[in-house]
Hints:
Number of helices: 6
Helix content: over 70%
Shape: elongated
Number of domains: 1
Structural class: mainly alpha
Order of helices and strands: HHHHHH
Radius of gyration: 22 Å
Largest sheet: none
Distance between the termini: 30 Å
Amino acid sequence: MLYDTYNDLTNLPELLDLLNNEITPNILKELDFDRYLELEAEVGDDEIISAETTLLLYYINYHFSNYLEAMEELKRDMQVLLAKSRCKRISREEIHALIDEIYQNYDGNGGMK
């Protein structure tokens, strides 16, 4: 579904098409077609598309904001760790190898193997 496409926030061309009204979300039409038909009769297709676009953009903005906050927190934490590693003369290559080793212990769903 279209809103799943924006969950990872990496589909910039499609997002730009949405912002330029070149594509429409049609989320309600996909999820509950009968309810969509009721609302279409009541308010019209343009109003549904406008509401869906607004809600989708709000959703994207909210999750992107959370992503940016998480990245800033991670950056601060890593700066402390990297300062400690420099004091202990651990090289950049060793840090990268350690990160690779840690990532190998995770499965594809973010959990430990």
